[in-house]
């Protein structure tokens, strides 16, 4: 059996590709966002819609950066926990 390190190296393990369980809270929040977005877009002219799209794209990019940082922080915390478990006391 390969180790997790080998799985990472060979691309068999890609945490960024894993999906999450969509629960009721997620669906409710998504519905609210979609509702407000559709209402806003209906009230905008073409120039404003372009600006809104640019804003949405920038927010998506920012969200991606946050996800990367949260993943790295979680990974570091996990490593620190492992070190603490195996540390001699």
Shape: elongated
The structural class is mainly alpha
β content, as a range? under 5%
Tally of DSSP β-strands? 0
Termini gap: 32 Å
Average pLDDT for all residues: 89
| Poorly predicted segments | none
Description:
This protein is elongated. It is built from three helices and no strands. With 89 residues, the chain is mainly α.
Summary, kept brief:
By secondary structure, the chain is an all-alpha fold. Helices cover 75% and strands 0% of the residues.
Question: What layout of secondary structure does this protein have?
Answer:
Layout: H1 4-9, H2 24-43, H3 46-86
Defining traits:
elongated, single chain, 0% strand, 75% helix, 3 helices, 89 residues, mainly alpha
